[in-house]
Predict the structure of beta-N-acetylhexosaminidase.
Amino acid sequence: MNFRLDLNVIDVQQNESRFALVLHNLSETNIEHWQLTFSVSRFVLPTSVSHGTLKQVGSLCTFESGQPLNANDHLYVEFSHRTKPFSLHDEGIADACLLVTTSTGVQAIPVETTTINLGAQSPEREPLSLPEPKDINLIPQPKAMVVKSGRFAIADDCAIASDDEDAKSAALWLSEELSDHLRRDISVKQEGQIRLKKDESLAPSKYRLSVSLNAIVITASDKNGFSYGVATLLQLLPVHASHRHYAGFAIPCVEIEDHPRFGYRGMMLDCARHFHPLRRVKDLINQLARLKFNHFHWHLTDDEGWRIQIDAYPELTEIGAWRGPFETIEPQYTSLSKIHGGFYTKDDIRDVIAYAALRGITVIPEIDIPGHCRAAIKSLPHLLVEEADTSVYRSIQNFTDNILNPGIEGTYTFLEAVFDEVCELFPSPFIHVGADEVPDNVWTESPSCQALMKEKGYADSKDLQGHLLRHVEKHLEAKGRKMLGWEEVVFGDKVSKNTLVFTWVNEQSGLDCIRNGYDIVLQPGQETYLDMAQDFSADEPGTDWAAKIPLEKAYHYEPFSHSDTTQNDFEKVKGIQCALWCEMTNTQSRFEYMIFPRLFAIAEVCWSAKEQRDWADFQARLSGQLQYLDRLGINYRR
């Protein structure tokens, strides 16, 4: 490239750091009229910039010096972040681009970025060191397992038989997986050596798996139990099975009885910050099913992108699904010199829902409101903007125009139309509405909001947020749906106690919600966020605003182990969820690296009883599971 950008730490204080930015013109051409755009993870203090002007929208900074950038010369500028010291290279500049104006228009020129110089040494990256695999490497650990002598050999005429409608989906999933594994057809028929049998005496979600010399039998009383039995059977398949030698393909004889610890076991995937192709999403869902997760939480909208087709407002995907240097929505994070984006059509979403349902997974859509709505607002300003609102605020992600206005009619028209289509598309009994990170000072200068506050006797912005969310909750209730939200959904004390709260800030916030009468799902950033770095080296991909989460820490997460909770408190914990936020996850390789192998650890935390979990035993079983990932070519952290 003809241009290079360096970032160096030059001063570090406890809560403020100063940086030197150096832009090199390595070409033989003088640049007269130019702007430098670059993305950073933190807010640049405007008054700290040594010269020139710098504006920031989200992660995108735009710098102008007002001076030419001559050939073989450089520009030097300093600025500060009011933040804790950086410890990871990922906290540097993610991407950069020059916007050069000539007589023919504006050209976007990519700029090479170098690794941030943190000004300090960091530890070496710790490799993943595991013992030899066990003979049987099931994750999560089943409740009870007896290993018997012998193996069940899959013969040429092997088939799958099911005697109940509740077993149908699981049988079809097993057929797909076995056929793919063996590279030949293993069909669902009237009779077969692999049988799925109904037993009404078993508790919901419980299953039994019996592998003998002559048959495999999965017994359950409901769809969930059959799905979990199939998931266990799939993990018993030999990793190195070859279609050339399927006659010798065999499964160890075992007797397993099993059921989950928590009823809700989920993973959230952020597809708004970076768009993930359909195949990537479906492959993840298949891995979740193998590990007995039962909910896929799909984060479809945010400031940086709107990813779901809404027929009532085609602008949401025509405008809101795309960002770039010449788009309505500016670039963010990566790909600053070109367009990034995409969205899921309704047919795409139906495909994902059907794919997940076959594997016993409920797909929960999230439409994040009233914050994190910049993509929607930029797409529909005629509906969602109150021109007289002069409120000044800044969200935690550095946006000043990303909050829906609860005082104008257009907001409710928009929300009802969107959620009507979402409810029609998704069979899930749950709809997630986000509700997080609405900043202070929002709506303070909105005439419509101030009038609403006066009419209702509201005291502050939290009351207004609660007013809007209660409206949405009632709308969803009328459609037979339960509203879910991040822990801020309870702000303003307007939503009902039927709302299921997902707590992310820390466990204490979860305990506060419990004692305020809410059921919760735990998703603490310090334990379950897969975008957190997995090691203490500066080279480790990820962020660490919540914590660094090595594999061992993820495995040892035990809800409220350091809190004074009662049995009644704990009964309001409906489950655990992990999450992959994707500000910096934009490739298949990084996607896999951030998820694996920690997903195995969290799967066992969600499923297996506390007294059954053993770190040393888990490591041996994980060693065997990594051979399966190797077979698929998955780029897990090694």
Residues 3-113 form a domain with the Immunoglobulin-like fold (CATH 2.60.40.290). Residues 242-247 have pLDDT under 50 and may be disordered.
